[in-house]
Structure formats: C-alpha cells, structure tokens
Amino acid sequence: MGNTLTTNGNMTIFGQLVSMVDDNGGIICYGNVDWNNNSTANFTANSLFQVYGHWFFNSGSNAQLSNGTVNFIGNNLSEVKSKSATCSFNNIYINKNNNTLKIISDANQPLVINGDIGIQSNSGFTNDSQQNIVCRGNFYNSGYYYLSDVNKLSTFIFDGTSQFIFMFSSSGYFQSPEDKPNNKANPWRKYSYNRRSDHRKWNT
Fold this sequence. Notes:
The chain is 0% helix and 47% strand. By secondary structure, it is mainly beta.
C-alpha cells in the first residue's frame, strides 16, 4: 500500500510539484489547490489526488497532469478555473455530496481534460464561464451536468480518437457539443447509440 500526503490547509504551488510516482499513493488536500506562475506538475503514476476546495490554474502556470485522477470530494461547492493555456487535467471525478464542481465566470482559458470525466451520484458539473470544455476521454454521468454559460457562448468539445458517453442519469445538457478530431485528416465522426449497452459512441 502506497503513502498518502495529507494537507489540512491549502496547497499553493510556485515551482514543480513532483509527486504521484506510486499507483497506490496519493494526495488529499482539505483546502484549496492553486497553481501559480511558473508552476509545473510531474505526475508519473496513476495515483489519486483528492481535493475538498477549489482548483485554480492561475495565470503563468504550466501544470499538465499527464497521469492520475483528480477527485473533487466533500459536501461543499468546489470551484475550478483555468487562466493558462498550458494547463490540463488527466482524469477528473466529481464526488460531491449533493453539491457541484463549477467552472467560475472569471476563467479565461478552456478547461482541458485529456482523460475521462466521471460525475458520481448526487454530484454535479456546471459551467458559469464563457470558456469551452475540452474532453479527450470518456464521459460518465450518474449525477447531473449543466454545461452552458448564461450567454450560451461556451462549447463542450469531444476531442479524442474514440470516445464513449455513459448516461446512468439523464439529468443535464451540453451547450453546442462539437466533435473535433485531433488529426485534421480524419473525417468527422458520427454519433450512434447502442441501447443494449446503454452507451453512446463517436465513431471514426
């Protein structure tokens, strides 16, 4: 069994966070996580980073989480935003007890998730910003999602090579979803629904 780093307060990162080298290890932050100017991430294992508070990719940060999962947990609202074009998540899970992970309105860069998005039961994912959400993995929903800003200017972009949408709950909507292949030479993919396995797939 791996080791877990527990932070009872906030985590503010200015340099490189070298962590997540053990698949069985992880980080628990009971406060907020702020990635500040010149901060970077070096996550080499598929470990779990659990956060109770907010997660901000602030201006000048360069945190590209290439492995692992960030799990937003707890009873309170968690906020997330990106103000840096060079920041991204791998997987995110939303496990809020009757509450939400919300992209807040002052975000000025798209929120990029290179892996999966998982919304657990009694949990939600909302977008109050005018920034797009880019997902390159699968989308799992057992809770609810309202991914549109008030002015309906944001878009949810499926940007992977082969993606599935698993709807265990039908509560929610995307605003102007797009399927945008990484390789411009690839054809646009068609959307199909398989009733037997209850999933949707973008086909190449």
